[in-house]
Amino acid sequence: MKTISFSKGACEKILRYLDSYISGELLVETNHEVLQHLEQCPACSQEMENRVRVRNSLRNAVREEAVPVDLEQKVRRRIHDSQPARLWRMGFSLRWMSAVAALVALSAGAWIALHKQQTQNEYIATLSARLPGILQVGLRDHIHCAVFRKYPKNPPTFAQMAESMGPQYAGLVPLVKEKVSDGYRIILAHRCSFQGRNYIHMVLKGTSALVSLVITKKNSGESLANVQLAPVLQAVGVPLYRGGAEPFQVAGFETPAYLAFLISDLAEENNIQLAATLAPGVHAFLNNL
Amino acid sequence: MSKADTAEFEAAALPHLHDLFRTARRLVGDRARAEDVVQEVYLQAWKSFHRFKSGTNCRAWLFKILVNTLHHYRRKWFNVRFVKEEERTLENTVTYAPPVPEKLTDEEVLAALDQVPVEFRTVVVLADVEEFSYKEIAHMLEIPIGTVMSRLSRGRKLLRELLGGMASAYGIRKTTEEGQSA
After folding, report:
1. Cβ-Cβ contacts under 8 Å, B14 against chain A
2. Which residue in chain B has the smallest CA separation from A43?
3. C-alpha distance across the termini of chain B, in Å
């Protein structure tokens, strides 16, 4: 605001700035000068009172207008009604983004899993090809089920293992536990399947070895007879057959109905030795089924 | 927007409902339209609440939305072609007006106000009833402060003249028609 002085034509200037004076928009100094003039000038003072009276009358009259009683409720309803649409849009976009993210994750996961599966299967096929056909049966399940597995921190209890084996094969758990030395512990005992074949599978963990005892029912015509015999054959009374596909060693024996394999990454002699330890008991167990 | 946002908005905006309604009522002419306008103002405000800076003047913000909404509605309702008002010099106000009667009824005052062209009426109501500063009004109407001052002076003068029974002598009615429905 301009600072004004009242020298010549003071009343004209007062009238010109009277509206800003009434509105309280003048600078303090100017305000003071206007006030001084009004005190000395009845005509300007009268005009000022006239204007203030109109302003006050107007203010009172407009403020008397009553608000419709239901207007606030209508406004609230409009706000709330507009909300679901906004939320829906937001929700939709969130859902949509989630769906896309999930799809991407699923695709990536599926691709990795598929790729992993292909890789594993190729690995199994490559290694198995180095073994006589019937020994491949044991190796495939060992790699698929024992090697490519994430084990829980704590192994299942013997009761859980027995339950997983089912009543027919549950007795294998204590039998194996009794036969193996303190250097091994059973970390898995269950029934599983791979490439359409069902297995009874126990996994033992040694200090640095992973060992599988894999048992499966013979298909028609299957026999270990054509496989190279292991040197420990005579010692245990059960024919033990062997084969190797680095880094795995496979020892096998059979009953009329079952094929049994001991597969590990132990040295050949150690693997045969462990098989010789287990074979009589397991053989007898299977024969009694 | 969450329920907390709604609660925050209602707490900040709803206390100004009465002020917005009475201003809308004076600027659109009837209560039903004023109700529509006010609801629209709140809806617009709610939609742009995320742009409202907390701690700033919520009342001034709502009135700015009101002014914009009124502008939109007037064009829709009246097909108004706003005549670029010649901003007259302040000479008009540099005269002593005939005294306004000391006893005025609300009806008389409002009837006179309703005859003041809407552009002047808007500034008069915003300044004299709602007590906004020149700066705030300039921001709301997007006009210079000088224009706020001249419109306020002219609007007040017209009102005084109407109340003083001088309307016909100053051709107020003609101006009103031009301003409202060209």
Report:
1. 72, 75-76
2. B96
3. 43
